[in-house]
Write a structure and sequence with these properties.
binds FE2/S2 (inorganic) cluster, alpha/beta, 15 strands, about 20% helix, Elongation Factor Tu (Ef-tu), domain 3, 2 domains, about 30% strand, six-stranded antiparallel beta sheet, binds flavin-adenine dinucleotide, Rossmann fold, single chain
């Protein structure tokens, strides 16, 4: 097999069930070889191809921080008819799978586009994964002072569908980050905010001044969140989002993921709202 496509072996060290429906799990992976780990240098926003023998492979966003150097984490939603996601969800701790990557572009955290700026992150559902990677990275003592205010607005359909619950609580309780957590519909135990992400955004009305936005969520949420952001004065070049397309190679060779002349695997998955507007088809 061409070495470009050869997955590196990893052990599934830990599996966490994230939601009440039990169809979202976080997999903590450790490389069998130290060299493979050292070579796997990534930045927030990138993805990797995860493979299970006999079930193929799929692109999954990296949910851990680049500074979590012992392990990688991926949060995966299982689709009832999805071959790879079902195979992943059937694994037990100690299983061996494959990882290749990291692939794609990333949020411009190390450039003046983001450094020294206020950072607003808006997430919905399980697509919150790469924002979680970014929050962990930004809050790290090495990085926190390089950025101004950090604000996170995260929503899920119901309280049971919120992922990373213990971390959400930690972030709510610590300083240096403002959290707005919302659910579309509460339950008898939920004392938090209820409301759709775009509506909460309008209500909270964060300042667009000197602020860069990262937004990840289901396409419908993205569409309806862009409008209030533009109304609040955010410019399309300062809104970054991540696109999903079916992929095969993950490295710009097969043409499976293209939108016009852009390959989502190589030119993306991160695009500004301005770039998305210039794509030849409706990309969101
Ligand atoms: C850059 C990138 C990052 C991604 N990050 C993540 C991530 O962090 N976590 C995660 O869980 N997924 C992520 N995905 C989506 C993930 O790649 C797909 O869900 C996965 O490839 C499905 O593989 P499968 O073999 O289980 O499904 P397949 O066997 O290929 O598909 C079978 C059926 O499952 C359903 N299905 C599969 N995928 C989806 C989907 N995304 N939405 C709706 N229905 C679907 C469809 O009905 C489809 O016909 C990402 C995709 C991209 C491109
Ligand atoms: S997945 Fe092959 S070109 Fe993008």
């Amino acid at each position: 097999m061409n070495s470009l496509y050869r997955p590196k072996p990893v052990t599934v060290r830990k599996i966490v069930i994230e939601n009440e429906a039990k169809d979202i799990k976080t997999f903590e992976l450790v490389f069998l070889s130290k060299e493979d780990r050292e070579r796997f240098k990534f930045t927030c926003g990138q993805f990797a191809m995860l493979s299970v023998l006999g079930a193929g492979e799929s692109p999954i966003g990296i949910a851990s921080s680049p500074l979590d150097d012992e392990y990688l984490q991926f949060t995966v939603k299982r689709y009832p008819t999805g071959v790879l996601t079902t195979a992943l969800h059937s694994l037990e701790e100690g299983s061996r799978i494959g990882v290749r990557g990291p692939y794609g572009n990333f949020y411009p955290l190390e450039t003046e586009t983001m450094e020294g700026k206020n950072i607003l992150m808006v997430g919905g559902g399980f697509a919150f994964t790469t924002l979680r990677s970014t929050i962990r990275y930004l809050l790290h003592e090495k990085n926190r002072s390089r950025f101004k205010d950090i604000t996170v607005l995260y929503g899920a359909r119901s309280p049971g569908e919120l992922i990373y619950k213990s971390e959400l609580k930690e972030w709510e309780e610590r300083g240096g980050i403002t959290m707005y957590i919302t659910v579309d519909k509460g339950d008898e135990n939920w004392e938090g905010r209820v409301g759709l992400v775009p509506n909460v955004l309008k209500e909270v009305a964060p300042s667009s001044e000197n602020t860069v936005t990262l937004i990840c969520g289901p396409p419908i949420m993205l569409k309806y969140t862009m409008l209030p952001l533009l109304d609040l004065g955010f410019s399309p070049e300062k809104i970054f989002t991540s696109l999903e397309r079916r992929m095969s190679c993950g490295i710009g060779k097969c043409g499976r993921c293209n939108i016009g002349s852009k390959y989502v695997c190589k030119d993306g998955p991160v695009f500004t709202y301005r770039e998305i507007g210039e794509l030849p088809e409706e990309a969101l």
